């Protein structure tokens, strides 16, 4: 396994500057997820690490060696695409071993690697089948197996589960995490699916417009988002937002607007707030408690049954407020857990 070090990377496709001055440090053996909406540059970044896109500037090091302008075959990487890209006339064993055979790897070594990968991915009984005889999930396992047999230093995954149905995605997501623990390899994974990101990543980089907005553990990003984009991109439903101002007087700090006042004296401000500063209060739906004794009341407009829980939607003076509840509730009175809120500057959208 190898570390990946990206410094001041610049990627330009035609006249379009996709990435400008990006830095990213991936530790050896880490599972890193690049998360963001379509067009944010995450796949472009992955393809640049793989050598499929030329860098316009900066450097890419893999295992301490400068690979910025190296050919893909010389980078010690294995890449798994969204499409399976299997040879239809070859069986599973031949598909998995094709690259090794082309490289002149000894037959005994090929057999060892294929058997090992097949055992990891439960493909043993399918080795003589052709792709047309496999399900979508089995085909993606073969594509992953083809990468494993290379015994690469770094594995790159470009939205490999997006073509699968929800059940198969869940199963393969779990298998990928287990595979990482078995291989102890460095893995970089691209997705726009926040559930995949939150469950797979050791750390994840949330991207927007070719810029990494936040790079941290999934829990830290979810609980302490650095800006409003990260706060609203993660979470389903998204974070509840209230516009207001900071009131810092007599040793206490409050968030206030026309309809809501919340004591945020215990909030970990990055720097002392200014009295009267315009800000946005962010509250996750699970931190809104439906309580008959709650200080605020909204009108229930919708209840979404989600199986293990429900999402209650309230109209609070024109603002839609989502609350996650476990049981049926009656009424729209609610409270907010101040210890779990986030505050953002209205002008810069950065966390206070």
TrEMBL record:
Return any one Pfam family short name.
OB_MalK
Matching InterPro entries:
AAA+_ATPase, ABC_transporter-like_ATP-bd, ABC_transporter-like_CS, ABC_transpr_MalK-like, ABC_transpr_MalK/UgpC-like, Mo/tungstate-bd_C_term_dom, NA-bd_OB-fold, OB_MalK-like
The highest taxon in the source lineage is Bacteria
GO MF, one annotated term: ATP hydrolysis activity
Recorded source organism is Pseudoduganella buxea
Q: What is this protein called?
A: ABC transporter ATP-binding protein
Any single GO BP term = carbohydrate transport
Q: Does the keyword Membrane apply?
A: yes
């Amino acid at each position: 396994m190898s570390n990946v070090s990206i410094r001041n990377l610049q990627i330009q496709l035609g006249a379009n500057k996709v990435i400008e001055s990006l830095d990213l440090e991936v530790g050896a053996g880490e599972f890193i997820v690049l998360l963001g909406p379509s067009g944010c540059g995450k796949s472009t970044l992955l393809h640049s690490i793989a050598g499929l896109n030329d860098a316009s500037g900066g450097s890419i090091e893999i295992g301490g060696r400068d690979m910025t302008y190296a050919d893909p075959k010389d980078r010690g990487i294995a890449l798994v695409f969204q499409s399976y890209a299997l040879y239809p006339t070859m069986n599973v064993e031949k598909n998995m071993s094709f690259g090794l055979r082309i490289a002149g790897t000894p037959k005994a070594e090929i057999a060892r690697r294929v058997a090992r990968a097949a055992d990891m991915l439960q493909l043993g009984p399918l080795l003589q089948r052709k792709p047309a005889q496999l399900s979508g999930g089995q085909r993606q396992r073969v594509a992953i197996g083809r990468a494993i047999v290379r015994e690469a230093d770094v594995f790159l995954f470009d939205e490999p589960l997006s073509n699968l149905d929800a059940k198969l995605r869940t199963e393969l997501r779990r298998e990928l995490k287990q595979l990482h623990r078995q291989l102890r390899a460095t893995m970089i994974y691209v997705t726009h699916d926040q559930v995949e990101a939150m469950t797979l990543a050791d750390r994840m980089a949330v991207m927007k417009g070719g810029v990494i907005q936040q790079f941290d553990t999934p829990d830290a990003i979810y609980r302490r988002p650095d800006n409003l984009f990260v706060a609203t991109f993660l979470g389903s439903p998204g974070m509840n937002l209230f516009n207001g101002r900071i009131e810092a007087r007599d040793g206490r700090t409050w968030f206030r607007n026309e309809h809501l006042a919340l004591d945020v004296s215990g909030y970990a401000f990055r720097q002392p707030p200014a009295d009267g500063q315009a800000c946005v209060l962010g509250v996750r739906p699970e931190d809104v408690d439906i309580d008959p004794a709650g200080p605020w009341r909204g009108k229930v407009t919708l209840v979404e049954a989600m199986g293990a829980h429900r999402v209650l939607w309230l109209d609070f003076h024109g603002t839609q407020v989502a609350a996650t509840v476990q049981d049926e509730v009656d009424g729209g009175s609610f409270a907010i857990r101040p210890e779990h809120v986030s505050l953002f500057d209205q002008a810069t959208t950065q966390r206070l």
